[in-house]
Amino acid sequence: MFQFGYERRGTESAGLLALEGLANVFHACMLAEDGLKYASKVTIYTSGNPTLVSEIQAALQTPDISVDDRKVKSFAAGSKRNTEVLITFEDGSTKTEGFLIHRPNTKLDTTFVGQLGLEVSDRGDILTTPPFCQTSVPGVYAAGDCASPMKIIPNAISMGAYAGCGLARELPRRVTGNNFQGLA
Length: 184
Prior knowledge:
By secondary structure, this protein is an alpha/beta fold.
């Protein structure tokens, strides 16, 4: 919703897929509320997760957000091909939404990570030390989606800037052997 959304303003109804990375109360409710900036109503689809439905319903603060626990079978382009999404449920019923909010899980290709011996988090992101994003291997920095649970452009830009600063501070030490003691 940082990259897209404004062009969808005025939509009657939108959907949020509370699956994978959004299958928790906090993130599902937060992003559903964000969806209300562009749509009059938002439906959170849990696709057969009654426990999550109960937790979300207890946390909801607005009647403009509802929860639907029907199992999703498929998605297709709606009648307005560039904007609408047709959701088909396992029971054969359908619902058209102006747009869908979703954040699928990402999986880091760990080949390079393994070769460098970098530590990773439980979620599979490369572990870094703030503020300069240095990894568990001295001289190796990681930034953006590979090193953060927040897979959003502003965060990646910020992390890249910090990693660049860290690298700029370290590179002269590695090239010349200077330790720059006393410099901050």
